[in-house]
Amino acid sequence: MKNSILLLVLLATATNLQAKLENSVCKTCHPIIYQEYEGSAHSRSSIYRDPVHKAVWDRHPAKAKNNYNCAKCHTPSDHKLISGEANLSSNEIQLTEPISCLACHQVESVEKHAKSNKNVYTDKKKYIYSNDKEKRGKKVSFKEKSYLFGLIKIGTGSPYHQIDYSNENYYNGNSCMGCHSHKQNGKSFTVCDLEVKQGESKESCISCHMPKVKGTLANQKQSVTHAYHGVGIHSVTPRILSEYIKLSMEKHSDGFSIAIKNEATHTLFPQPLRLNQLRVVIQRDSKDIVLDTHSFVRVIGKNGKPAMPWVADSIITDTTIKALETRVVQYNTAIESGDMVRVEFGYYMVNPKAAKKLGVDSGSDADKFIILKEKRFEF
Predict the structure, then answer these.
(1) In sequence order, what are the residues at sequence separation of 6 or more whose Cβ sits closer than 8 angstroms to the Cβ of residue 334?
(2) Backbone dihedral angles phi then psi of residue 261, each to the nearest 5 degrees
(3) Is the pLDDT confidence value at 235 over 90?
């Protein structure tokens, strides 16, 4: 009886909220996932939630014409903005769900283009795609069975939408490539390219960035785990990515070397604003010997000087670590007996020099050095 009442409440709630925010419906059945989403990068992708994105937009020449051309990836849920019915404004969608649940779960396929890829969304109503290896290839509709002469009713599937587990894009990670593959500017210059090599590894965007964690998937059907939906640039992402970074050290007669093995299926931080660094400190006789910092960065520009993404037409330097690459850095400082070598490998979301130029607040997370991997070697 309780299950039947719950079902009626869920159906009524879904019907009443359908005309409002898309996520208002989703969080009714998926409160744990929704709570994770609220702290994710997807929920903060608009200029009203992301100070870095806003800082770049404020300097973009298209702002004077209010021609916000970042919407298809940064705010796909603002349908009126996407269709041209409205201009960019501080509305509820921009503030709460610029990339809603449906924006990811209704990607039917991805069209590949030179400038940037394009998400193709299903036109089926109340229809979502999902990933479940046990149900792979199946399409699940809501069904209800009665027990004890109708006193107990148990449903399978969702009372609000059909679930399609047959879309391979949700297993190989291609569903993410509509927005996270590459981007060219108006000069046909590639500003950013993750150079994803998912076919050369057992891992994919989804298996790495959305690992299984404890907690039920939905409140009307209990499960032990669910795919994590709260990936954020500073909190969870470093812990996840750190599993795919391996650091090792080799001692030589005239110094030593640090090997950085990137087991991730994409280039590390190819975005022009990022700054990836390797920091090494030798602790000897209670003193710290700080060695030169090695930076890995992709600098784009024009006429040999760094420039904003919409102006750039060439690569000034690119030392980023590619997918599945092992990069070796040499040091000519000899290691002595009793030394302890501390190695830190991490990144800045925004290169401090760029952050200063963009006017990003120094107190924000954007200019903090985030450690992905730390290791100590004793001799």
Answers:
(1) 253, 254, 255
(2) -100, 115
(3) no
Amino acid 11: pLDDT: 43
Integer Cα distance of 226 and 95 in angstroms: 26
Taking only Cα atoms into account, the Rg of the chain, rounded to an integer number of angstroms, comes to: 24
Q: How far apart are CA 206 and CA 159, in angstroms?
A: 25
Contact 314, 302 (CB under 8 A): yes
Residue 171 pLDDT: 93
Of the candidates 185, 166, 188, which has an alpha carbon nearest to the alpha carbon of residue 175?
Answer: 166
Residue with tokens 């030169």: 292
Q: Which residues lie across from 227 on neighbouring strands?
A: 212
Q: Please name which of 349, 354, 260, 367 lies closest in space to residue 299, comparing C-alpha atoms.
A: 354
Edge to edge, the sheet with strand 305-306 lists: 305-306, 298-302, 314-318
Block residue for tokens 């057992």: 202
What does 106-136 look like in DSSP terms, one character per residue?
TEEEEE--SS--EEEE---TTEEE---GGGT
Q: Letter for the amino acid at 352? A: P
User: What are the structural domains of the chain?
Assistant: 2-45+99-124+170-229 (no CATH), 238-378 (2.60.40)
What does the alpha-carbon distance between residue 296 and residue 317 come to, in Å, rounded to a whole number?
Answer: 10
Distance CA 85, CA 99 (A): 18
Quick check: helix, strand or coil at residue 365? helix
